[in-house]
Amino acid sequence: MDFDLTALNEQIRKESQFSDSIQNELKKVLVGQEKMLQRLMIGLLSEGHILLEGVPGLAKTLAVKSLAKAIDTTFHRIQFTPDLLPSDLIGTLIYNQKESAFNVKKGPIFANIILADEINRSPAKVQAALLEAMQEKQVSIGDTTYPLEEPFLVLATQNPIEQEGTYPLPEAQVDRFMLKVKVDYPSQEEEMRILSLMTANTLPEDVSAVVKPEQILDARKVARSIYVDEKIHKYVTDIVFATRYPENFKLRSISHLIDVGASPRASLNLVRAAKSHAFLQHRGYVTPEDIREVGMDVMRHRVLLSFEAEAEEVTVEDIIETVFEAIPVP
Asked: What confidence category does residue 1 fall into, taking pLDDT thresholds of 50, 70 and 90?
C-alpha cells in the first residue's frame, strides 16, 4: 500500500461530517425510511440514479423533495403519463414571430434533482429521452447540445401493484439505474409517530439548506479516493460471476433458475456504492459488509429469472441471497 490509510481514514472522517447534517435535517419531516434516505445519499455521492419501487403514500416524493432542499439545489417533479412527449421532458424550439427566429424553451429535465414519478406510465420514446439525459448528462434541442448542471440525479418511481396501462422499462434501460430500492411500509410504531407529527396543531418544521451543491461535488471526489483492497475486488467479481456461471461456484442448484446474470455494470456499481456507504460511515476503506449492505439494491434489477424460477415461485432476492451466502467473505 503506497499511502497512509490512517491519514485517509481521518480525512474521510472530517470530510463526511456534513452527511449527518443532511440526514438529521431530513428526519425533521420523515419518520423511519432510514434505508431509503441512506440510498438517496449513496446515489448522490456515487453519481448513480435510483429506481424506487413501492406503493403510493410511502413518502418517496417528500424524501426526494426534502433532499433537494437540504442541499440547496433545484428540484422538478415530472408526472409520467401515457400522453407525455419527449419534448415535454427535455424542451423544444418555439418560433418567435417578432425576431423571426426559433427560441429554446428548456423542459423540466433542467434541474439538479429530478423525480420521475411512475416512469412506467409513459411510452418508450419518453423513457428513452430521460435515460439518454441520465447517461450522457446532456440534452440535444434542435442542433444544440446543452449540458445538465451537476449534481444531476434522477429518482424514478414505479408502482409494483398497478400494471394496467403501463410500459415496463426494458431490461437494458433498467440496468442504467445504479440502485433499485424497494420501499416498504413503515412499522406500526413509526406510523403512530407519523400520525402524531402530521396531525398536530402545528405543522412539522420545514427542511432548511444545510449544504451547498459544491460540497456534494467535492465529497464525490473524496469518496472516489476511498481505499478498496484487491480482495474486495475479487469478492465483488466472484459475486457477479456466480450469477453468470453458478455451476463454477458450486451453485448448480440455482443455474436453471437464472436466465441472464448480472452485467459488468453490477461490478462497477457494487464498488462505487460500497465506497459511498463507507463514506457515510466516516470510514476511509471498503469492507465486505459494505458490499453486502448495498448488494441487494445493486443486483436485484440485473439478474433475470427463468420461467422455471417463476414456476417454482423463487424471487430474485432469493437467488441473490443464495449467491451471497455461497461466496466466501474475504
From this structure: very low
